[in-house]
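For the sake of transparency, this paper describes our internal protein records without simplification. The tokens are whole numbers drawn from a learned vocabulary of local backbone shapes. One such record is reproduced below, unchanged from the form in which we store it.

. . .
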Amino acid sequence: MNIIREPKVYLLGRQNMDADAVQRFLDDYGMTWQTDTEIGGEQLVEVGGRVCYLSFGKGRKTNSEYIGNLIGMKHGSVLEHATWDFIIAGVSRSFSHELVRHRAGWGFSQLSQRYVDESMANFIEPDVIAEDERLHAIWLRSVQASHQAYVELVEGLMEKMTHVEAKTQRRKLVREAARSVLPNATETIIFCSANARALRHFIELRGSEGADVEIRKVALQLLRIMQREAPTLFGDYEIVTEDGTEVARTQFQKV
């Protein structure tokens, strides 16, 4: 059993724009267009915006200028065309209960406790508990007791359910019952897909001072990743420290 205190976010996937397909469209409609960004998500958002106004080859020339204007006007729907994929690990079941409330623009695939054996589970300890020796001891005692109960329940249920001949089905039934004693602190792993607009909403809501500490850590990690990955779409954010706590800020909210 390991104790984890910091989440990890891994960027796995990003979009690419098919330049040949875009050129065929432009040729068919007698238009020309060039962009100065090589980032697929930023290209797709610009194309989406220019389709709305048929402004290919007109007006603002740089991708940064064009998307900056869209964000300033709060034309957020075009940001939904750019999507990224992540694995979020080192987070608790408490975290996942809050994360999956973000349905619009998100897709989730989460570790299943019915199929995965939690006998070697990791647990997430909140900072406010970890920094206090007495409170840490209380928390650790509770987690260890719950984990031991899980192990014993798995063993007992495997003996009890010998009438279920298919081993895979028996293990699933055993684990789905035994998991009932595992605490919210149990680690989970989640594969997520989200578009730029959904990510911005998540960062604004969960990166604020009122957010849960654990989910705020993830929101700020996502922001740092996206500012490197697509600076035109996330460059208006800044991370500031208030009362010793990092939070995300932008003047363009609810795009």
Summary: Residues 1-113+186-255 form a domain with the Alpha-Beta Plaits fold (CATH 3.30.70.3180). The two ends are 43 Å apart (CA to CA). The chain has a mean pLDDT of 97.
